[in-house]
Write a structure and sequence with these properties.
By secondary structure, the chain is an all-alpha fold. The protein has one domain (5-23, 30-70). The protein is 79% helix and 0% strand. The chain is built from three helices and no strands. It has helices spanning 5-29, 32-42, 51-70. It is elongated and about 45 Å long.
């Protein structure tokens, strides 16, 4: 398998941006209610998430696809 270094780096940067986004959200929103919801989501397969929950993952999937398609 040949991996284009530029696309790999763009994807790695995007993954890091996603992590930053999540960490900021966690720091700003760490309530007992949210923690319980996050634990439930961690223990739920993607297929079993609500459509609203899936939309959040789809937003990041679309960003990944953009990098893959547009380089």
């Amino acid at each position: 398998m040949v991996i284009r270094v530029d696309i790999r780096e763009k994807l790695a940067d995007l993954v890091h941006q996603q992590w930053i986004h999540w960490m900021r959200y966690m720091v700003d929103n760490s309530t007992e209610e949210n923690i319980q919801r996050w634990v439930r989501q961690m223990n739920t397969a993607y297929a079993d998430l609500s459509e609203k929950e899936k939309d959040s993952d789809r937003e990041w999937a679309d960003k990944i696809l953009e990098v893959i398609i547009n380089g």
